[in-house]
Amino acid sequence: MTDIKEFFIASNTVSNAPDYDSNVLSTLIHTVESFARVTYQSIYLIDYYKQEFLYVSDNPLFLCGHTAKEVKELGYSFYLKYVPEEEQKMLVELNRSGFKFFDTFDNVDKYQCSMSYHFHLKSGTRSRLINHQLTPILLTDDGKIWIGMCVVSLSSHKTVGHVEFHKKGNPNYWKYSGSSVKCVDAFRSALT
């Protein structure tokens, strides 16, 4: 069984308390709430300093039968409860490799990056393959992701994985395979 501590590694652990300006966080949450009202996707915010969910939208796709408040309170234990055990290890590995790859970019570029991958959420006897995307919203002074926004939708794939790392404005993207990340020419791969 996966331990919640495995999700928090040096690359994504914020040890120095960021400036918790309640007005900034309140504005951020209100903005994300507004976006959640006009999209079919589920949205949530992760606070990597407090290691908890800062906000969870009430779109039922991500909630697995819970209320948004209940999922927010579950935090990372939500993954342990609703992601199949064999896929939890994949999430831990993607978390480790993805944050390590984020760290290869400077702070300005980190704001332009996102990571996308696919895994199952189980609810009772049902299981749904979802697409999960993560992008930084706020960074700490030393460039660590402090607040990350996650967007969840139904997957267009049939299997888990399909990990891609994108940087806005770059026609290329990176694909994760096993323990390596390789750059893919988006136009060439679309033609083959």
Description:
This protein has 192 residues and is α+β, with helices and mostly antiparallel strands. It has a single domain (4-191), classed as 2-Layer Sandwich (Beta-Lactamase). 32% of the residues lie in helices and 34% in strands. The chain has helices spanning 22-37, 60-63, 68-74, 77-82, 85-102, 107-110, 186-191; strands at 42-47, 52-56, 113-123, 126-139, 145-154, 161-167, 172-177, 180-185. An eight-stranded antiparallel sheet has the order 2-1-5-4-3-6-7-8, with helices on both faces. The longest helix is centred in the middle third of the chain and has 18 residues, at 85-102. It is globular and about 45 Å long. The N and C termini lie far apart (39 Å). Mean pLDDT is 86; it is low at 186-192.
